[in-house]
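Subject: Protein record for review, amino acid sequence with backbone structure tokens
Concerning: The relation between a protein's sequence and the shape of its backbone.
How to read it: Take the token row as a discrete description of the fold.
Enclosed: The protein record, placed directly beneath this head.
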Amino acid sequence: MLARLSWPGFSGKRRFDDLTQQEILALAISSEEEDGQIYATYAARLRDRYPASAAVFDGMAAEENQHRRALLDHYHRRFGDVVIPIRREHVRDFYARRPVWLVEQLSLDRIRQEAGDMEREAQAFYVRAAGRATDVEIRKLLGDLAAAEGKHERKAGLLAEQHLDHDERSAEDRAAHRQFVLTWVQPGLAGLMDGSVSTLAPIFATAFATQDTWTTFLVGVSASVGAGISMGFTEAAHDDGKLSGRGAPWKRGLASGVMTTLGGLGHALPYLIPSFWTATVIALLVVFVELWAIAWIQNRYMETPFLRATFQVVLGGALVLAAGILIGGA
């Protein structure tokens, strides 16, 4: 009952400095178990696409399992068979693992980064725990584990050298880059092109037909938001990513929808300026920047030759823009 109260300073959790040596050992055991499971999860998720990196995380999971066995052996000798059920989330001023490892579509670089953070946090825990231990054997064990965790990054490097030669690492990095392009860049670029180009005609047709900046702004915003919603749902619905390997549909839909909306808003927002010609000149400059940005992204990420990308995007955008101005001015 009391643990549910939310008074300031009272969370129902134990302070780390109040833990007994038995509780510290139990906490270390549960922490090693969780870290080993996380590494094993990483390995399972990477095995199909990045087998060499999966082997690295298999090795790290085995290291954590060795630490867990050493802690269990000492706990059994000192405190018996029953391990106190205490975990990180039960300790108020103790680090907790961020739940990013639960996400299905983590990038390879993000997984490597998270693993490095895990090792540094584990080392800090053992250093602090060893400093509080009064029993010589427990202090020695925790100190040894702190040193072992400090060497884990180097151990990970040795495992990487064993399983990941230069060619394999380059191949995995290329695969990770390709996944990033398929999941985020490609749908985002398609959205940006659609939002930037398809809204040119209605926005500038309205502008030149009415010469009313507020009306033009409302048409631009509605066209941009509507196109963004349509493109986002279309991208997410037409491919679940399982066969194509293009990644989670919600990620692709989000990238496509947001970039479509931004592409249209870019040349709609200038029409918040009351002066028609001032707003139109600024909108035209924004269009120029948008089209060149699209050509650059195509060249940078999609490996489209720059002149070809420029010709396709700028010429297409210019034609749509001209159509909008001619229709609006008729």
Notes: Confidence is low (pLDDT under 50) at residues 1-11. DSSP finds ten helices and no strands in the chain. The CA atoms of residues 201 and 319 lie 9 Å apart.
